[in-house]
Design a protein that fits this description.
Largest sheet: 5 strands, antiparallel
Helix content: 10-25%
Shape: elongated
Strand order of the largest sheet: 1-2-3-8-5
CATH class of the domain at 131-254: Mainly Beta
Region (Disordered): 72-129
Number of helices: 4
Structural class: alpha+beta
Radius of gyration: 52 Å
CATH architecture of the domain at 131-254: Sandwich
Number of strands: 10
Length: 258
Amino acid sequence: MAERPQSDLGTVLRHEAERHLPDTRVMLARIAQGRAEPAPSRWALSLRPVAAAASVVATLVVGFAGIRLAGDRPEQDRTPAATEGSPTPSPATTVPSPPAPSKAPPRAETGKPGADKPPPPPELTPSWQPVDGFLSSIAAVDSHSVGTWAQGNVTLTTSQTITSLDMVINVARTAGVADAGKWTTIPADMITMAVTEEKDRLVYRFTLKQGTLAPGAYVFAVQYTHAGGDRDATADTYGVLAGAGTERAVVTGAFPAK
């Protein structure tokens, strides 16, 4: 068989392709006619592959659209579709919400006025620690105190050599209280002393600045004036932080009543 020239072969293939191009208008008319007929015709059978492909495309499009729409709605707006065979609930079968009570339930009677109020919190009392490790302390109002002048003494006793010391004595600002002096049995060149006046108290501070304190007892005294008569010193307090090498001790306390 003689071979056709390359140009003739391309022409023949192009004519065959054009001859098999579907006529869209005719196909749509045949599809509409096939849907109207009760039994499938020969044309409808021949168009089943085309219809099936169109159905697949339509299904995919609807599926993607449904996914997007479902993703755009909030979770609470999504309601499951009713399946075939499951009855649709009628308003009569819905469970009614319980009615609101007409009035609040009566409160339990205690028979005592104010019994429903919580009890007041207990009063907190300071917890003093006059002894800690190698250090012990005691406070007292000096016996030489007179009507308008007083002296408070704090005695520290250490069983080890003290290498650092910081002490604070607080004198409450009762009627007429004012600073009148301070002293200690520690040599003056080894310690600094200062007093600060605050709204509710006088703050006396003693700090060891050099040297060490051998084991023994040391007195720290604060002096102040006050209104005439016996002054209650129970609101006066003290605190001490001391070091003996690597050991630390903290003692706190208050002055007893005179």
